[in-house]
Amino acid sequence: MVKLHYFCSMVLNYIWIAFFLIAFVIGLCKVIFTGDVGIFTDMMNATFAAAKNGFEISLGLTGVLSLWMGFMKIGEKGGVVDFLARAGSPLFSRLFPDIPKGHPATGSIFMNIAANMLNLDNAATPLGLKAMQQLQDLNPKKDTASNPMIMFIVLNASGLTLIPVTIMVYRAQMGAANPADIFVPLMITTTIATLIGTIYVCIKQQINLLDKVLLGFFGGITTFIALVVWLVKSFPQEQVSVYSSLIANLLLFCITIAFIVAGIRKKINVYDAFIEGAKDGFKTAVMIIPYLIAMLVGISIFRASGAMTFITDGLTYLVSTCGLPSDWVTAFPTAIMKPLSGSGARGMMLDAMQTYGADSFTGKLASIFQGSTDTTFYLVAVYFGAVNIKNTRYAIAGSLLADLAGILAAIFVCYLFFEN
What we know:
Layout: H1 2-34, H2 39-77, H3 80-87, H4 89-95, H5 104-117, H6 121-138, H7 147-157, H8 165-173, H9 183-204, H10 212-234, H11 237-265, H12 270-287, H13 289-304, H14 307-321, H15 332-337, H16 342-356, H17 361-372, H18 376-385, H19 395-418
Helix pairs in contact: 1-13, 1-18, 2-8, 2-11, 2-12, 2-13, 3-5, 5-6, 7-9, 7-19, 9-17, 9-19, 13-16, 16-17, 17-19
């Protein structure tokens, strides 16, 4: 797993280097064969503009990220994570039948999944590592992933998130008229990815999908998604945008109130909890500056050279030749990058919003791609590497299947909600 972690790091390294080398080669070709003497000036100007833009985006993120991290801290201290863990107990006991009843691993898994659903990355990762260590204690083959480990990894990789805080924050910073307009579409997309990944693992592990709890869970999700699709299809596009926006913002406000009420019930100092979380948000915004600048500069010089246009135009031509809609192609680099690198995918998403507009179809789809699943190879490397698992069995296959389901669902849902 250390090798896999190294592989992921090297892949991102090679991709970043490739941005510059390919741009340089294309620039030379344009100078020699087309006489475009301004291409290198354009590329260098793009690097300076991207560096400045990366810093300004990070600086602008500070306020909004501090706001949401503050509310999240209230929910965390108010016991919302514990509540979600208890509520999911009947379901998770079916998904993890090999874990003895009452084993502490169960609680760690519940808490990790609940923290992920609330977008509490700082809480989710330590809980996830703790869960993997406890699962390793139960594992008879210490170098091979156990069934519960694989289910746990796929659930994490599928990226089920109730509140896509970071995506909305970036959309707000990039000038979206309504940053929460992707809330409902993204919730549907990530749910489908989780559903497909979970069903795949259940089939591999011969878990009874006809169990009344699992059947109720899967059936309830499927019914909900089908109902949303039917409602969207029943209204004109302009009404869909209005009502989905209303529902998204109402749900977000209700969740915020629920966090505050939970804090009051727990008798915590809600204001102090908010300040504590806001400080974490400020630190996070500062920490991402170097990563954001690095990716935006690489992507910008790649785009300024014409390489990105060449790729997207070629893919658009192929898709159009097959008689399929091709509006999604310009957002596709975000989807390709996501399993490999979270920071790389974030850079692709921001580049798409900056180039085409945060409220464009491409900008919205790139946002949904970014939030639909988690970073598969990073998760596999970190979680399995923490307990020295060498044989991951079908964990990567299940995670990538969830990624694929998330990509296809994102395209479908984005056309359903946003295509005029």
